[in-house]
Write a structure and sequence with these properties.
heterodimer; A: mainly alpha; MetI-like fold; 2 domains; two-stranded antiparallel sheet; 15 helices; 74% helix; globular; B: mainly alpha; 68% helix; 0% strand
Chain lengths: 318, 301
């Protein structure tokens, strides 16, 4: 490889000095460009085989009768899309996923912004705080879900005995037993796991706000709330926009936490869209064509939602 | 954006203080020690809230509890259950280690070469390839995993840890390529040109001169790749069907549905500890590099 990509550099240097630094000879530029292509080749192959090809394949699968074990059995348009849209669990899944996304995004960003403002300035104690808040972010979402599965369980939960000893509740709380409690228990887990992640992103944004803006506001006699709402929030908009887009996208595609904590229960009340796709393809459904059709619909919806978010958040900025 | 203007502090975060802001907060640097106590109590409580679940898992995994292998006295009974489950903890740890190391090696070598190409060379299709690489972020995980399941079957990589590692590498490429590109762009061009004039080829210039210069970027990319591969759940859930080949997160999750629907929470807690330990240790050791990943992400946005 080294020999292949070696441009004749000493020669080039000589030529360059001879011709007084005019543009490099065409032959050398060609070999430079060839080296570039060779270095980019592994990326190109990976992207082509594991990304571009699958995207094309999912489009083909979505219009085909494609069983998990049977494979491709020919065209099945528009049945896949019609069946996916008619699935009796689709609308409950959409409603639940959107509800979960709104609650998670609002809570998570509020908590993260509060934390970012507390730990933003530099001191040894605050850097300890930052580290403590960030530790859960190192955990995998699956590990965190398994951890809270044990924390929420009727047998091993440390919360119920503590609350009952304090007299806060008389009966043990069933954290995953009802649709509402299962939703909020999952949201709590997600806030715990991701607060540090978004705190860090917002902290970077806060530190990008010039100090003299605050100074000027302070001299003008602005109070704390005015400074927060008129200076911090507007100037933080780019960071907040990035966090919102990341959080909305992540929540709309939620899977691990519900798969581990609730398996979609109780009574299918916590089935998310990705879980529905998974069920259609693997857990019982065994219909890859149907699952592909729903995936394509999710992809299109997600692209549209992100385009809207970009426009909306940028529009406000102007 | 100015985030990169600031030098990293002890915790790897920026250390600038905005003038005129300190007196708005009851900071730990305030003048009156009496005023500082509530601040310490409140923020200390906050830190505890984030650490408590992890500490609880570690303590609960060795403490006595009904319905587990550790019923009386403290001890490692739950870890014995975990070690004996299915194909054995050793096998699952090995699976996870293989997948994680392969993913790290693939991601590092591909993004090192790719980042070099995108930062330093001009070639046809360069911008298109870079954009398509970033577009991986726009496509939902599940949308890609269904065709990948079929594709891996077609090329004989079904049920294989190598296939899984290649898929996980692909998901790492947007961040890794972006990170390595900006790392190479931050290295002065003169450094490479000096090596080229000395008779190095571009490849030996890369290995001898540039790799040391972009080492921080490589550590960040490697850390993120490891954490993602070690913790991934849905990709092995779909791509690995052989129960002895699953990585540890999947094995611990499967363990819960074992004996007659009775769940051994003690073994689950032990599994969480084994899963979390390498991540937490790596995170604490490389926190500075972890934070840098966010800085670059925020710069992008």
């Amino acid at each position: 490889m080294a020999n292949l990509t070696t441009p004749t550099v000493p020669e080039a240097a000589r030529e360059k000095s001879r011709s007084g630094g005019v543009p490099r000879p065409r032959r050398l530029r060609g070999s430079r460009s060839l080296s570039g292509m060779l270095y980019a080749a592994p990326t190109g192959v990976m992207v082509l085989v594991f990304f571009v090809l699958p995207v094309l394949l999912v489009l083909q699968m979505s219009v085909s009768d494609w069983g998990l074990f049977a494979g491709n059995r020919g065209l099945n348009l528009p049945e896949n899309y019609v069946d996916a849209a008619d699935n009796r669990l689709l609308w409950p899944a959409i409603v639940f996923t959107v509800k979960y996304t709104v609650i998670t995004t609002v809570l998570l960003l509020a908590v993260a912004l509060g934390l970012a403002m507390v730990v933003q300035e530099a001191s040894r104690w605050r850097s300890v705080l930052r580290t403590a808040i960030l530790v859960p972010s190192a955990l995998g979402l699956a590990s965190a879900s398994l951890l809270f599965y044990a924390i929420y369980s009727p047998q091993s939960s440390p919360i119920n005995p503590a609350l009952m000893a304090l007299g806060v509740v008389q009966e043990p709380i069933s954290f995953l037993g009802t649709p509402t409690s299962a939703l909020w228990s999952t949201v709590f887990l997600i806030v715990w796991r991701f607060a540090g992640f978004y705190m860090l992103l917002l902290m970077v944004g806060l530190q990008g706000i010039p100090g003299d803006v605050y100074e000027a506001a302070h001299i003008d006699g602005a109070n704390r709330w005015q400074i927060f709402s008129r200076i911090t929030l507007p100037l933080l908009r780019p960071s907040l926009a990035l966090c919102t887009i990341l959080c909305v996208t992540g929540s709309l595609l939620a899977f691990d936490q519900f798969y581990i904590l609730t398996k979609g229960g109780p009574d299918n009340s916590t089935i998310t869209i990705v879980q529905l796709i998974y069920n259609m393809a693997f857990a019982g459904g065994n219909d890859l064509g149907l699952a592909a059709a729903l995936s394509v619909m999710v992809l299109i919806a997600l692209l549209a939602i992100n385009a809207l978010q970009f426009r909306g958040l940028r529009g406000k900025e102007n | 954006m100015t985030a990169t203007d600031h030098a990293p502090g002890p915790a790897g975060t920026t250390t600038r203080r905005a003038p005129g802001r300190g007196d708005h907060h009851h900071g730990d640097d305030g003048p009156n020690p009496l005023l500082r106590t509530p601040y310490y109590v409140l923020t200390g409580g906050l830190a505890l809230l984030f650490l408590a679940p992890l500490v609880w898992a570690a303590v609960a995994s060795v403490s006595p509890q009904g319905g587990t292998a550790q019923t009386d006295g403290w001890g490692l009974g739950n870890y014995s259950t975990l070690a004996a489950y299915g194909a054995g903890l050793g096998q699952y740890l090995l699976n996870s280690t293989i997948v994680s190391l392969l993913t790290v090696v693939f991601t590092l070598s591909i993004s090192l070469l790719g980042g070099y190409a995108f930062a330093r060379f001009r070639f046809p299709g360069k911008n298109l390839l870079f954009l398509v690489t970033l577009a991986i972020l726009m496509v939902p995980y599940a949308t890609l995993l269904i065709p990948l399941y079929v594709l891996l079957n077609a090329i004989g990589l079904q049920n294989s840890l190598v296939g899984l590692a290649l898929v996980l590498t692909m998901f790492q490429l947007p961040f890794a390529t972006f990170m390595m590109r900006i790392s190479f762009e931050a290295v002065p061009k003169e450094l490479e040109e000096a090596a080229l004039v000395d008779g190095c080829g571009t490849f030996s210039a890369l290995v001898r001169v540039l790799v040391p210069a972009v080492k921080p970027g490589l550590i960040t990319v490697g850390l993120f790749a490891f954490l993602a591969a070690w913790n991934d759940f849905i990709a092995p859930l779909i791509l690995i069907s052989d129960a002895t080949k699953v990585p540890l997160p999947l094995a611990v999750a499967n363990m819960r549905q074992q004996v007659m629907g009775i769940i051994d929470y003690g073994a689950t807690e032990a599994g969480v500890v084994v899963l979390a330990l390498p991540c937490v240790v790596l995170f604490l050791a490389l926190q500075r590099h972890y934070v840098r990943g966010f800085m670059s992400g925020a710069l992008k946005g």
